[in-house]
Amino acid sequence: MGAMPYTGAATSVAEVAIPPARWESPGVVVEVGLDNGAGMSAQTTPAALLYLAGVAGVGFALVNPLVALGLPFFIVLGPPLQASFNADAENLIKALADTPLPERVVNSLRSQWPSEVAVAAPSLQLHMRIAGYGLVTRSGKRLDAFEPKEELCLVTEAQLEIAREGLPVRVESLLVSLATPSPDAPPPFCASFGRLAANDGRLLRQAIGELAEVLAAMTLNRIEVAK
């Protein structure tokens, strides 16, 4: 299953739709879905707007010399910095889209699935709803191009329903977060905006794969407890 097509559009809080994933094998059915898109706390602005603001300020500078002090930033310095920030944000959004977490979780569960559970009766149904997922700052603020950069952390909040023969057995929370992680969850992966965006978002793609393995391992722990 591939990712949804990436549109290349950046928004104030970037979000990209990611499709659900499913795996069915003798004795087990697994479904993983994302309630909302994958998000990223970043404020992007078209670089051309800064340049236009600077050009518009030229007339005011003739009346108020203090305005002239800010014109080099808007006309010369600001647009390239904003364009670079926007390009890095685009890399991260694309990495989130091209590395769909639900599919990675299903693949990790398939590879980690104990052979003795695969033929257990009655059949086991697992439904994971990922309610929140994406890159957030520790402070909760959005990143922008002209403020000191906080690290971004890859977090997720999911609910796992474990059922046998269609009857609910257990509902569990799977939290990989900064504030209230599940007891068996590792700390979320955090890195600077620039490191995450470098090399077409390679570090973020690796982190998504590792997060999927963590969610799969937490799921298997819950199944063991629910026996």
Characterise this structure.
With 227 residues, the chain is an alpha+beta fold. The protein has one domain (13-44, 88-226): Double Stranded RNA Binding Domain. Helix content is 44%, strand content 27%. The protein has five helices and eight strands, in the order ββββααααββββα. It has helices at residues 47-63, 65-98, 101-112, 115-118, 193-226; strands at residues 13-16, 21-25, 28-34, 38-41, 124-137, 151-164, 167-176, 189-192. Strands 1, 2, 3, 4, 5, 6, 7 and 8 form an eight-stranded mixed β-sheet that branches. Strand 6 and strand 7 form a beta hairpin. Helix 2 (65-98) packs parallel to helix 5. The two termini are 31 Å apart.
Task: Sum this structure up briefly.
With 227 residues, this protein is of the alpha+beta class. 44% of the residues lie in helices and 27% in strands.
CATH architectural category: 2-Layer Sandwich
Strand content: 25-35%
Largest sheet: 8 strands, mixed
Give the SSE order as H and E letters: EEEEHHHHEEEEH
Give average pLDDT, whole number. 78
Gap between N and C termini? 31 Å
CATH class: Alpha Beta
Helix content: 40-55%
- Principal-axis shape: elongated
How large is the count of helical segments? 5
Give Rg in angstroms: 22 Å
| Helix vs. strand class | alpha+beta
* CATH topological fold name: Double Stranded RNA Binding Domain
Count the domains: 1
